[in-house]
Amino acid sequence: MAASQLAVAEIRARLQAPEEGLSSSEAATRLQQQGSNSLPQARGRSWWQRLWAQISNLLILVLLSAVVITALLGHTLDSVVILAVVISQALIGLVQEGRAEQALAAIRHMLAPAASVIRDGHSQRIAAADLVPGDTVLLEPGDRVPADIRLERCHSLSLDEAILTGESLAVEKQPEALAAASALGDQTNMAFSGTLVVRGTGRGVVVATGSRSEIGRISGLLQQTTGLQTPLLAQMDRFARLMATLVLAGGLLILLLGHWLSGLPFADLFIAVVGLTVAAIPEGLPAILSITLAVGVRRMAKRQAVVRRMPAIETIGAVSVICSDKTGTLTRNEMMVAALACGVHYRQVRGDGYALDGGLDEPLPEALQTPLMLAAALCNDASLQAAEGTVKIHGDPMEAALQVLVHRLDGDPVRLAQHWPRRDEIPFDAEYRLMATLNHNHQGRHVLWVKGAPEALLQRCRQQLDDAGNSVALQTGYWLEMIERLAADGQRVLALACKEYSGSELEMSDLNELQLIGLVGLMDPPRAEAIAAVAECHAAGIAVKMITGDHALTASAIAARLGLSNSAEVLTGKQLDELDDQALQDCVGRVNVYARTSPEHKLRLVQALQSSAGSGADSGNQRADGQGGAVVAMTGDGVNDAPALKAADVGIAMGHKGSQAAREASAVVLLDDNFASLVAAVKEGRTVYQNLKKGIAFMLPINGGESISLVVALLLGHTLPISALQILWVNMISSVILAMTLAFEPALPGMMQQPPRARFEPLLSRRLAWQVLKVSLLFLAGIFAAWHWGMAHSGSEAFASTVAVNALVAMELFYLFAVRYPPGQAISLQGFKGTPVIWAAIAALIVMQSLFNWLPLFQRTFNSSAPDVAALLVAAGCGIVLLLILQLEGWIRRGRG
Ligand code: ATP
């Protein structure tokens, strides 16, 4: 019989699944027997598919045809060398791609989904892969159901089952057994693995895991492919392909014209054209750029920011506004009840964090303290676990703080809960901002306990308690004053209320005519590192907006402590609703604190920021889509945050307290929920972008210099200063070794004192294009000068071209130091100190270049000839002169302002 037809008690008996959950040891045994709760991953591409992807690149195809033609022409040596280069290029490409994929795979496991289970008697978060049949699982809005679950308790639980059934409307669930076997979509008492909790909460027993679950049976494979592709890479790919096509067409033209007009021997001309082709195509560039991105992904992961969608790594560096949640992101989410307002009494609470000892500065009347403790303990889903002198909390930190308060009032929340079993509940809902439970004690009293945002509760209360425990009329004015007093101190205010109630089930409409017990004020101090990060954002021209569900005064007080600018001006969700889109756009740039908001407001804020002029800290940041708005990063954690996370330029989900739905909607996940990590990720994003630019600025002039040299030589009928094979050597060995180091460059000093770049700033800007042209010409001059000096010095073409190759490599090396810093700043102690990667690359370069110069096999292959000291000095001189010229130009430019 299917699980849906059995009563939960029957399922529990069959699976030996006790109500208080499995023990850890039993779970471990079952895990070993049943295997992990994960689906088999789709296998990646096979090695030959990956090899083909490398070979099917235009340059490789050109080289392969060159291999065939040179062989046919009888130039066997050339043919063999070109073939060797092709093979090594394909292998290097394979290895690099493999490493980049590994980098992504390594961070993917950081995002492994988690599940809330009851084990060893209390609820805890575990990796979803560790679930076993018989586990008791709790479901909340935003969760992906981690296994097939027979539900035993549901509170307005609705699941989106589209992944299984294709039905896009959420399905309401209930726990009763079904009479007959039914199709998946009709099994209303089952929650199937992979479906999404849209609303409500639930609890149930795991009946099938891994490939035995319905989704495991249907699909078997879980496709999970995020390539290393980004818009900039795609742009560069297109650019490289365009260049290659142009160069090939040009090469063909030169070949035909040269042969036909000047009657040059075809074989010589062909080799020269191959050289030109190789010289002009920036073959190493795509690899360098993807490595730069992969290094960026790894660096961000180290700083607790995991990139889920590659394009985000580019966008995050251009962010001009960060919209952040307050609780847990800007604050520590370590709550502590600091003050109480109960009846007419205001009390301060002594104690330290979650430590259980502490108490009130003055006692409260018993008739007030008892209901206060009961409400705090019963309308509460958290639990405390004393371990090795500290207290570990499970569940919501605010609810845990209320349990600690009960201890400090000399109560025991566990015993109270045993005396007052829960019959029903209305889980916390951000829309109503309250939570309620219905409990009955053993003397037959039924009481409804409610806690929530004070505005939400006050309007449902008619009465309050006096010192003797009698009901008296509610003094709304007094409570409003107390709310302000607590909130102005930066405390999160919560109201507690109760009512005698005879029914057995709870509905929202029952929550009226309540009796107010009192208010508690909870401290949640700002994170020290968030204060520094806010200041860093301001210096970097990034506006920070705080969006919170908390009270306006609490929000404003915390914002002031965080150093948020204009913290006194607060817009509440209600005020926001009254503004039309234009009015919102007009004030969204100015207002930095948004209080009592619900998730829907976040979407409006993102849209307003994206389309309002001057909404960033730096209003010069224009969007290329014609709008003058900001590039927005938005944080979120709940299922209802998903639309805003998707709409933001960079959606950022909280890894710790965030729901699976929020993660799936976001581009980046913050593992530690910390605002400072977010800012660190922005910094890494800016660094990645800088390094991409450095990679391009480095590679293009080398290709430019080489190809212009060849064209000039061909046009002037000059001997080629560097042969095709030598160019292959330089491009495949020295250029790649040196350029690779740029992927690992640290951020430039002062980077976070600059405003964000315009989002759609072209990578190859006019300034960069000018630099490419200028440096190409310098390379050209260096190559010819070295060649002529070599000829004059020795009279041998082999020697002259060896000097030219060495000069080219030396110019590359010095140019590497020049591109690392802005113009005019390369010659500095800092600049010459380099990085360990650079020095390793230089060592490798020297070894390889020595082989080129002095190893007889290489001399024969590349037609090189051992350079003497003077030749080496000339080569080095070319490099130094290049660096000096660039530095001089930088100085002059800076001098001009
Ligand atoms: P932030 O946006 O700063 O992260 P938040 O989104 O966590 O805050 P909500 O969770 O929406 O804010 O909470 C809004 C208000 O609802 C709180 O100020 C509090 O008064 C009330 N509240 C929060 N959690 C609970 C709960 N578990 N039970 C009852 N009331 C709650």
Automatic annotation (TrEMBL):
Topology of the protein relative to the lipid bilayer: Multi-pass membrane protein
Transmembrane regions: 51-73, 79-95, 242-263, 269-295, 696-716, 728-748, 768-787, 799-817, 837-857, 869-888
Gene3D superfamilies found in the cross-reference section: Calcium-transporting ATPase, cytoplasmic domain N, Calcium-transporting ATPase, cytoplasmic transduction domain A, Calcium-transporting ATPase, transmembrane domain, HAD superfamily/HAD-like
UniProt KW keywords: ATP-binding, Membrane, Nucleotide-binding, Translocase, Transmembrane, Transmembrane helix
Region (Disordered): 20-40
Boundaries of every Cation-transporting P-type ATPase N-terminal domain copy: 2-75
Domain of life: Bacteria
Major place of residence: membrane
PROSITE patterns, A to Z: ATPASE_E1_E2
Ranges of biased composition (kind: Polar residues): 22-40
Subcellular location: Membrane
Pfam families per the UniProt record, alphabetical: Cation_ATPase (PF13246), Cation_ATPase_C (PF00689), Cation_ATPase_N (PF00690), E1-E2_ATPase (PF00122)
Entries under InterPro entries matching the protein: ATPase_P-typ_cation-transptr_C, ATPase_P-typ_cation-transptr_N, ATPase_P-typ_cyto_dom_N, ATPase_P-typ_P_site, ATPase_P-typ_TM_dom_sf, ATPase_P-typ_transduc_dom_A_sf, ATPase_P-type_domA, Cation_transp_ATPase_P-type
Family to which this protein belongs: Belongs to the cation transport ATPase (P-type) (TC 3.A.3) family. Type IIA subfamily.
Name this polypeptide is given: HAD-IC family P-type ATPase
Organism ancestry: Bacteria, Pseudomonadati, Pseudomonadota, Gammaproteobacteria, Oceanospirillales
